[in-house]
Design a protein that fits this description.
Elements lengths: L6 H6 L6 H7 L7 E3 L5 E3 L1 H6 L7 E7 L9 H14 L4 E5 L4 H4 L8 E2 L2 E4 L1 H5 L5 H21 L6 E6 L3 E3 L9 E3 L10 E3 L1 E3 L4 H8 L3 H9 L2 E5 L4 E3 L6 H7 L7 E5 L4 E4 L14 H10 L2 E5 L4 H16 L5 E6 L1 H7 L12 H20 L4 E6 L6 H13 L4 E4 L1 H4 L5 H12 L15 H11 L5 E4 L1 H15 L4 E4 L19 E10 L4 E6 L18 E2 L5 E2 L3
Parallel strand pairs: 3-16, 3-17, 4-15, 4-16, 8-11, 17-18, 18-19, 20-22, 21-23
Antiparallel strand pairs: 1-2, 2-14, 5-6, 6-14, 7-12, 9-10, 12-13, 14-15, 22-23, 24-25
Helix pairs in contact: 4-17, 7-8, 7-10, 9-10, 12-14, 13-14, 14-15
Enzyme class: ligase
Catalytic activity: (6S)-5,6,7,8-tetrahydrofolate + formate + ATP = (6R)-10-formyltetrahydrofolate + ADP + phosphate
Protein name: Formate--tetrahydrofolate ligase
Amino acid sequence: MTVVKSDIEIARHAAKKPVVEIGAKIGIPPEHLAPYGYDKAKLSAEFIRSKRGDRNGKLILVTAVSPTPAGEGKTTTTVGLGDGLNRVGKKAIVCIREASLGPCFGTKGGAAGGGYAQVIPMEDINLHFTGDFHAITAAHNLLAAMIDNHVYWGNELNLDTRRITWRRVMDMNDRALRDIATSLGGVANGFPRESGFDITVASEVMAILCLATDLADLEQRLGEIIIGYRFNKTPVYARDLQADKAMAVLLKDAMQPNLVQTLENNPAFVHGGPFANIAHGCNSVVATTTALKLADYVVTEAGFGADLGAEKFFDIKCRKAGLKPAAAVIVATVRAMKMHGGIAREDLGRENISAVKAGCANLGRHMENVRQFGVPVVVAINHFTADTQGEIDALKAFVAAHGAEAVLCRHWAEGSAGIEELAHKVVALAESGSGQFSPLYEDELPLFDKIETIVKRIYRGAEADADSSVRDQLRQWEDAGYGNLPVCMAKTQYSFSTNPHLRGAPVNHVVHVREVRLAAGAGFVVAICGEIMTMPGLPKSPSAERIHLNEDGLIEGLF
C-alpha cells in the first residue's frame, strides 16, 4: 500500500535553497533583499523602481470553477504551472496571495498549494509569515483609535458618531465581534456608539496595499479613506485626522513583496491577501508588476471561481494597473463537476459520467465569462486518484465542444513533470496573440448599472435588486465624484446566485444588494449581496482543534 504524505510532510522535507540564490535566478542582487531568516525575504523599493522601464513578460491568470467541498486546487495548479513553465525552459515567477489566519484555523486551510506543487516555507506562509497582516491590522486599528480619540477630545471635525463607517478588524474568524458597542463604562471611556469588526482581509487598508504602486501612492490612498460623515453629511477623510502618514509608517515594510520559493526552487512572490468573496481577491499590484519585469511569464491566481476572483482581477486590478493578461487557465476537477451535477460528497468516489456532464454547465459558464473579457482560455483538469477515464473523457469532450482544450494535470503527485503539457499549451496560447483584453464595463457607466451588468452578464441573473436607500447612496456618491469607480461584489463563492446551495449554472435569479460601502482610498465601491458576512465565523469543529505541536516541536494538523 502506497503511503501518501501530507502537504506539511512534503514541505518539511523540501530541499530549500537560500533565498538570495532564488533572487539571483531572476536578477535580484542580494543587497536588495531583506532576509527574514534563511528562506524568505522582502524586496527593496529601490530595486522595484529601477526595473520600471524594463519590458513586461506575459501575464497568465489561473482561476477556477465555483468552489465545492470536493476541492479544486487552484493555488496548487498556479504553483505547479509556474514550475512547469520553468521546466519547459521559460523564466517564470509565481505571484499568489498570503494566507489569512481566519480560514487557516477555521475550515478552508492554508493557501500555499499542496502535494508536490507548493510554495515554502509552508508553515510560515500559512501563519505569521513576515508580519504583513499584523501591520495591516495595526494600521487599520490605529485609524479606528484616532477616530474615537478625536471625538473624545471635542470632535472638532463635527463627526456624526451615528455615521462613523470605519470599523475595526482582526485576522481571525469571530462572529461575536460582528456587531459591538464601544466606549462603554462612563465619561473616561468616551462616547458610546455601535460598531463592529471585519476580518483583516476585508479591510480597505488591505485593498489599498494591494492596489498601491509605491509608498507615495499608498500614503495618498490612505488619506482618501472616508471614515464617516459630519452632521451636514459631508465626508470626513483619514487625512482630516492626520492619520495617513502614521498608517503609512506602519505599512512601510508590509508594502514590499515577499520572495519565497516553490518545492522545485523556483521564485514566487507571496504578497497581500484580500478575500475574493468580500474584497477584490488578488495579490498586490506591486508584486505582479515587478514580477512582469523579471520573467518571461508570471502566473497569478484570483480567488474562488471566475465569477468572483477573475471578474475582479479583470475589472479592478487590471483596469487600475493597466495589466493585459495573455491567457487564463480555468481549474476544474472531476469531483467538482460531479458535485455541481448534484452528487453528494460521500458518493464522489463512484464513477458517474452523467453527473460530470451535468456539472460541466458550471465550467462552461466560467469559460464563457472569461472570454467576455477577450482573454483566451485553457482548462486544467486537476487530477484525483479516484477519477476514471470515462469521467475525464467526458470533461474533455465538453471543453472541446466549447472551443477550448482541457489538459489532465498531475502536478499534485508529480510536480512540474505532471503539468508539462499544460505549460506548453499556455505558452502556445499566450504567444498566439489571440487575446484582446478589455474590462466588462466602461468607467462612465452609473454605479448601479455596473452592478447590474455583472449580475446579468457574469451571474446570468434576471436583475440586481436593492432598496431605495442603497440606490440613493450610490447616486450621492456619483454626485460626489465617485461614479467612475469600479464595483467589487461581495457575495457567496459557492454559487452564481446569492444562495450558496444553488450549484451548477442557475439563471434568472435575483441578486439582492443589501448594503454598499465606499472604499475611496482603494478606488472601488463594495456591493454586499445576500447573506455574505465581512466577518466569518468558525465552524462547529474548527481546524484549530486539530493543530498542535508534536514532541519534536513541529506543527501538526495544519493540513
